[in-house]
Amino acid sequence: MKYTIVLPLIAAVTLCSAPVLSAESDWKRGRIYYRSVCTSCHVAMPIGSINPSTKSKAEWATYLKSDKHAKGKDTVSQYVSKAYRASIKSANKAAEKFADIPDQEMAADLDAFLQKGAKDGDAPASCS
Ligand code: HEC
Q: Which candidate, 106, 108, 104, 121, places its Cα nearest to that of 37?
């Protein structure tokens, strides 16, 4: 009885999370991170919010790879790091929620979201 419910569920979850970019990247988590951590600072700064659709996939890829943020004053990876999440988690729910995610995994999620949300990115796949 139990299995008739559980097995189809496992199958559905497995299918829905089928890797598009890599087994670890989760664009939805990247989206939460971008909106909650990156954007929350941008909106408080003169630059204002930065839409992922302002850059192409290739531009985002180059941007993340060069790892120069704010015109080279600091790095993007610093804002994805566990250390940064720890420093803001008392005031930032996403940083708190993702506190223990390894840096590389968090960076891969952000990358996946920016690739999806880019000017020439795919429409988000629906699983519902
Ligand atoms: C603590 C504040 C803060 C956080 C957190 C932050 N940014 Fe920024 N970001 C800035 C500021 C300030 C600028 C504008 C710098 C300038 O124009 O001199 C900027 C600029 C940018 C730009 C425009 C190009 C550039 O680098 O100048 C991009 C793209 C960007 N940020 C992406 C991100 C991403 C992705 C994250 C999250 C991983 C992030 N930022 C997190 C403050 C922040």
A: 106
